[in-house]
Design brief:
By secondary structure, this protein is mostly helical. It contains ten helices and no strands. The relative contact order is 0.11. It holds the Pfam family TetR_N. Keywords: DNA-binding, Transcription, Transcription regulation. GO terms for molecular function: DNA binding.
Length: 193
């Protein structure tokens, strides 16, 4: 018998708490039900099992992780400054999370190995943010690019090495990030400006 009124947000909050408490390897849907004081079956009214619930948690976590990136898009800055800030934020967001929220970061890595659809959506969102800034730069006359979407894909892939956990403790990480970003921005710039 349900003791509290459930909705997806309450379930996602509880699931994050359970993952943080037990870790992604040991946490399970029964732990979530127990923390909410509901039956295991009550959760199945909202999610089709652990995989569906863990995907939803990871998707929300990624969205929250990249919220500051979305804020950069609305800044009143020229496109080259925005792009630098955005790419730097992309590189640092996951590294910060691996330090500040290691269980949720581990959950993200686990999901990345088994289910690519949430990860692919996050990549697509990142590419679209870059494309928006490149298009702004074209309008401003800062960037010269005939195919902004393809350029955004290239820029994303060129910087994606910095979102991989193996890069987080690399010597000269910040300098390397800045060098790659500056190189990419120079490549996008209008040669007449």
């Amino acid at each position: 018998m349900e003791k509290i009124s459930l909705d997806k947000e309450i379930i996602l909050n509880a699931t994050e708490e359970v993952i943080r408490r037990f870790g992604p390897e040991k946490a399970n849907i029964s732990d979530v039900a127990k923390s909410l004081k509901v039956s295991h079956a009550a959760l199945y009214r909202y999610y089709n099992g652990k995989t569906d619930l863990w995907k939803a948690v990871t998707e929300r976590w990624l969205s929250n992780l990249h919220a500051s990136s979305k804020n950069i898009l609305s800044e009143d800055n020229p496109a080259d400054i925005k792009l630098f800030r955005l790419l730097e934020e992309f590189a640092e967001a996951k590294r910060r999370s691996s330090i500040n929220d290691p269980e949720m970061f581990a959950n993200y890595l686990k999901l990345a190995q088994s289910s690519m659809d949430v990860i692919e959506k996050s990549i697509e969102d990142g590419i679209n943010c870059i494309k928006e800034i490149i298009e702004q730069g074209i309008k401003e006359g800062i960037f010269f690019e005939e195919f902004p979407h393809q350029a955004a894909i290239a820029v994303y892939h060129a910087t994606s090495a910095f979102i991989h956990p193996n890069s987080f403790k690399a010597h000269n990480r910040k300098q390397n990030i800045e060098s790659v970003i500056n190189l990419l921005i120079r490549g996008l710039k209008n040669p007449n400006k």
